[in-house]
Every structure is written in structure tokens, then in C-alpha cells.
Amino acid sequence: MVVARTLGLSRNQAATLIASGLVLVAGHAEKASFIADPGTEVTVSVPPSASREVLGEQIPVSVVFEDDELLVVDKAAGMVVHPAPGNWTGTLVNALIGRGQALADGGDEVRAGLVHRLDKETSGLIVIAKTDRAHRILSKAIAERRVTRRYAALCWGHMTDDNVSVDQPIGRDPNDRKRMAIGSAGRAARTDFHRLARFTSTDLLRAHLHSGRTHQIRVHLMSVGHPVVGDDTYGGGGARRLVNMPPKRQFLHAAWLQFQHPVSGEELDLRSPLPADLRESLCTVSEMPELENHADPLEYLGFYTIGDE
After folding, report:
1. Can you give the CATH number for the domain in which 129 is found?
2. Which residues participate in catalysis according to the annotation?
């Protein structure tokens, strides 16, 4: 269906718009079965979604940096970042509001303070703006690639080289709106991958984002035949027992952030050690039990050492 595919809606949502007379073909309402000729003007009026108050909740969060302008949270896997249909409570935004502090408006109460996002099953560092000034400056810095974001990822199989760059546009999958896909209609996206270690059936990678598309690392790794371990959506969800991974968890962790403070100009270098579940999985696949007792296995494996990559 043209309306669903073009606007990234489900077929039911598109059908509702058509039945409500909000889709006009050359100025006239048509049935959902109508097939428009190429070049025909189709006008869609999408009504605004009903507003819903976002409530604060007493949910503990791990804060690694905070001042009057911003804070950086170490998000746990399983936590949704912002409220949305099906997840109006228990999100990071609910938790932040529950702390009783001001957050940048950002033009959207549901995404209050958010400068960027992390997938539900991705753990690690995320930046939150407290003031509109900080939000504006940080958003611009991310758009201009002045915020360095590096992730630890475990992928299936072995990369062709220690350093692999994937530069492929990413957009909504035309056949499944819950997935993203590489395609010419997508937005430019680039991820640099550096192999830190090669194990029997997996590679441990440092992934450097040069853009911030939805599911970017996951889609790019799938595109080269090495999906993220535990990623049920993009082909990496099998053989969990082999790598000692819990259900509904993917081995993707936002471990390292470097950026300039939006007001003071201070250079911030923030790190998040692997959480316990990923540490256990890494010990299993690496056959290096000594990693379990190391303060940060990523440091031990050279994650924070940047060479000629």
C-alpha cells in the first residue's frame, strides 16, 4: 500500500486514514483498493496524536556525570528510552522526571532532554540535556560529528579485516516498519569497525558511529554477514547457550563517549565497563576466565587504545 510504505505506517493505520477520508487522490477520496497511476497527486492529512502526560516514576538510574546543564546516564539493557504506545511507563524519561529535576524541552515532552537514543536491549551511556541551551548545542555537535560514540559489539563469524568501514544508507524497511534496512532511499550512515579480538565463532569489535541512524550498528553488521550476537531482529539471535547470553539481550554496549561540554568547553571522556551479563558472555566465548575479575575487560582488550584504524 502506497500510503503505508511512504509514511512508514502499518497497513491498519493507513487503512484508518483512508476510511476517515484523510487520503485524497487528485482531490477525491478513494477506497483502499484504489491503484493510483504514476505521477498522481496523493494528499494525506495525518491528525495529531492525542497528547498524554508523561509521569515521573521512582526508578533508579546510574548517573556517571551530572551538572546544571546535562547528565550522562549508564542505561541498563531492557529499559526503553522514552514513552511510546505500549511503553508509557518504566522508561528512562519517566525515571528522569521522577528525579524531580528540570529537563530540556527539546520540542517534545515525551523525549524531554534526550539528545540521542539507545535501543531497548542496548546498554550504556546516553546524554541528557537539562537546559534548552545544552540541548541545542549538543544536538548540533552530534549532527556535526563532534560527539564521539564508540560501542562494544560481539558479532557472529569473522570480519574480513581488522578494520572494516560500512558506508551504506539506512531507512525504514519497506516490508516491515519495525525494522530498518539498507537502501538508496535511506539516509547516509557510516560505521567504522575495529576488531579487538577473534574468538572461535565470534569477533569482539569496537564500533565507531559517524552518524546516528536507528539500529545503525545492527543493520550494518547484518549487511556484511556478521550480525550482533543475540540480535533477534537482524539474524543474530540463535545459539544463545553457546555464548552464555540471556534471552532478549544483544551484545551491544555504548561504552565510550567523548565530547566537549556545551557550556564550559571542558573535554569529557566518559566510560562504562561491560555489565555483568555481557562480561559473563565474553568470558565464555573468549575462554579467558581471568576477564571476570578484571575491573573492565574492555580496557584489558584494548578497547580504549586508538591506533591507525
Report:
1. 3.30.2350.10
2. 119
Clarify whether residues 152 and 235 are in a common domain.
yes
Residues 162 and 151 reside in one and the same domain: yes
Per the confidence metrics, is the pTM higher than 0.85?
no
Structural domain containing residue 11? 2-44
pLDDT in the model for residue 8: 56
pLDDT of residue 15: 64
pLDDT value at residue 100: 86
> How far, in Å, CA of 20 to CA of 13, rounded?
11
Q: Rounded to whole angstroms, how far apart are CA atoms 265 and 261?
A: 5
Give bridge partners of residue 73 from the DSSP assignment: 63, 126
Contact in structure between 307 and 288 (CB atoms under 8 Å): no
- Are 134 and 223 part of one and the same domain? no
Tell whether 284 and 206 lie within a shared domain.
Answer: yes
Q: Do 161 and 303 have their domain in common? A: yes
The 3 state secondary structure assigned to the chain is: CHHHHHHCCCHHHHHHHHHCCCEEECCEECCCCCCCCCCCCEEECCCCCCCCCCCCCCCCCEEEEECCCEEEEEECCCCCCCCECCECCCCHHHHHHHCCCCCCCCCCHHHCCECCCCCCCCEEEEEEECCHHHHHHHHHHHHCCCCEEEEEEEEECCCCCCEEEEECCEEECCCCCCCEEECCCCECCEEEEEEEEECCCEEEEEEEECCCCCCHHHHHHHHCCCCECCCCCCCCCCCHHHHCCCCCCCCEEEEEEEEECCCCCCEEEEECCCCHHHHHHHHHHHCCHHHHHCCCHHHHCCCCCCCCC
Give the mean pLDDT per block of 10 residues along the chain (309 residues).
60 62 68 68 63 82 96 96 83 92 72 90 96 94 95 97 97 90 94 97 97 96 97 93 92 98 97 95 91 89 82
Would 262 be classed as within a structural domain?
no
